[in-house]
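mind reviewing this stuff:

——
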Amino acid sequence: MDPIYLTYLNRQDIEALKLSDQEVLDAIESGLARQGRGEAVIEPRVHLEPKLADGHFNVLRGVLGTANNAAGVKIVGDFVDNYKFGMPSEFGVLLLFDPRNGVPRAIMDASGITDMRTGAVTAIGAKYLARKNSKILGHIGARGTAYWNVRLLDHLFAFDEIRVHSRRPESRNGFAERLSRDLGKKVVATEDWRACVEGADIVVEASRLVEPEPMLLTSWIKSGAFVVPYGTMSAVELSLTDIMSKLVVDDWGQCKSGKFGSLRAHVEAGKLSEESLYAELGQIVAGLKPGRESEDETILLWHRGLSLSDIALGHAMLKKGELLGIGQRLRYA
């Protein structure tokens, strides 16, 4: 057998790749389309709770066929108290394999990948499901994936007004300052949830609650809005799905199972089911179902996080690294 080598991309390598906003969006949109066309295999994520701290590990697995020919497993920890120790809440590793023979192809830092791909799924969802003239964004949450949500949404919509909120004043103010600096426009940190989301064209709820609590009220959502709730613990009222013209998810298999997720109670109450579900996002991106069809539709997207998105973005990073000579070549066998 010939020697087998794999590529290692650490956090500094990932940063050195300098993927543009559009490169991130293109990789994720392509992966979603392949999922929609049935050119992928995905299994629901698994949660591992060490019970040694307030946090858990997510284990995601999938295969993207045809153009990518990449299989992958991502393990990412989500520990909400890490900020107390000056650390991000999420650390992750992505492993890529050749699905034709199981040969390992790459090991890479997945913390940045997680943030980027989550923001990209939010943004691609808005591309197909939000009103084209959306000008006001209300974003709840300031850690983890929050930055890329706002950055990539603004890349597509060039908002007139961006509002952000999180529980701790220093967190939301720092987040607003960072966004203002990077986006070159004013970003407002609000003092409460209502001021952040009421009347917004696009509402993203990425809170980090300890337990489910209805913090985002249905009455604050204006007609025609696009709403993306995806916190680990539900922060929305049961009535939220009642006002929606369309309910869309990233993968029904993982949304209908498990103990976590922003619409877990809605699934258990029968408000979100195979009958009430409009589509998976990949079906819309692939053109198999229409997205937004009128200005007055109020639409919800619940995405729990796709291994396929991690794999698609990881594959794009691997390819760019090969072109630029970034990364370390390690002998496996």
